Amino acid sequence: MLPTAAPPPVRGLVIAEVVVLAALNIEQLVRRLILDGPAPAGEILYFAVGLVLGVLALLRRRFPARTAALTLSGIALSLACSAVGFLAEPAAAPSGDAESLALAILVGAVCHRLPGGHAAVYAVLGGLTMAAAPVLRFGDTFTTLSIAVVWALLWGCSVIVGLILRDGDARREAALAAARDRERLALARELHDLVAHHITGVVVRTQAAGVVLADGPEQELIKEIEHAGAEALGAVRRLVMMLRSPELASQVTVGGLVETVEAAVGDDESVTVRLADGLAELAVAPETVSTVHRVVLESLNNVRRHAPDARRVTVLVEPTEGRRHLRVEVGNDGLRPGRVRRSPGGYGLIGMAERISALDGTLIAGEHGERGWRVLAELPLPGGVSPAAAAEGGAAR
């Protein structure tokens, strides 16, 4: 079984966060709102903001996909609190430890989970917010400057912890990917050395029997066995290629050819789909259906990315004459006059070509007509390649 990523245990960390944040809020409540007598409005505001930011910091675990929004909300709330404190009369003594810790936790979370550029922006905003808060709220004194330095150090520690966790996730994913590759290669070797070898032996012996019994009544049955063995050998050979090259792995499809094409097109009303009559009853291998899905999906994505002004987009799927190949054509008229269209900068066409090559098919992509761009793929159907040729190809490997 291939290894799967298991989330690390976090219950202890959650309990620790709840205890520390609750302790800081309770300490501020007791010290500022009870022991020191009636508290000014600023003290109540700082306590409320610290409590809300603590809740936001805990919610990041429940909603990891919204870490950026929670962090931005926390930064905005802290900045608003600092603005109110700057305009109002400074509080008697500095406070806000719970708020600073919660904001540091949120900054560490974005450094851990968000892409590099976004994480840097949120980290800088959080650092400026934390470092400026004591001075804006409590005045420019030696004590407040010391608190600003401490909060800046807390921010730096949160960034370092977030980056350490980010690096740990990357290392774990790399280790899992390497383990999956080793498992894949081991399966490919087993299939190539054992299954393909035995199937090749069956095909060769069947061919020999066909020569010996050339005029016998069993000749038709022998040809069927030979053909089935050759197809099985070709399927094993393609499976070995896909296991050795994960980028060639076909997507899993649960429907037939017609359903697969319709699923790839989706609800895009600008695309005209033309399917040949009887396509649903056509005998098509599962790997061919998956490749058709990939060709249509990738071609339409390229149209949306590189030809957004195309007025006509067509998808044509039909068998060729004699039903020896399946023809998949995706065209559009989004090529501007005098403009040379280059292949996309990514690996879309390369990936399609590799998938189609693994099935012994062909791919043509380029200009078609005055304003047209076309992707044309032809994939062999069962019976399109002779059993003898398939057997020879498998034996050569």
TrEMBL record:
Keyword terms, alphabetized: ATP-binding, Kinase, Membrane, Nucleotide-binding, Phosphoprotein, Transferase, Transmembrane, Transmembrane helix, Two-component regulatory system
Annotated Gene3D superfamilies: 1.20.5.1930, Histidine kinase-like ATPase, C-terminal domain
A GO term for molecular function: phosphorelay sensor kinase activity
Entry's transmembrane regions: 44-60, 67-88, 119-139, 145-165
CDD domains per UniProt: HATPase_UhpB-NarQ-NarX-like
GO cellular component terms given for this protein: membrane
PANTHER family in UniProt: NITRATE/NITRITE SENSOR PROTEIN NARX-RELATED (PTHR24421), NITRATE_NITRITE SENSOR PROTEIN NARQ (PTHR24421:SF10)
Protein known as: histidine kinase
Organism whose genome encodes this protein: Amycolatopsis thailandensis
Top-level taxonomy: Bacteria, Bacillati, Actinomycetota, Actinomycetes, Pseudonocardiales
